[in-house]
Amino acid sequence: METIIVTNMASVNTQFAIAVHLLAAIASRREKVTSEELARSVNTNPAFVKRILAKISKAALISTSSGKLGGSVLAKKASEISLLDVYTAVDAPNAFAIHAYPSTKSCEISSNIKEVMGKVSEKVQSAFERELKKTTIADVLREIKAG
Question: What is the pTM of this model?
Answer without folding.
Answer: 0.85
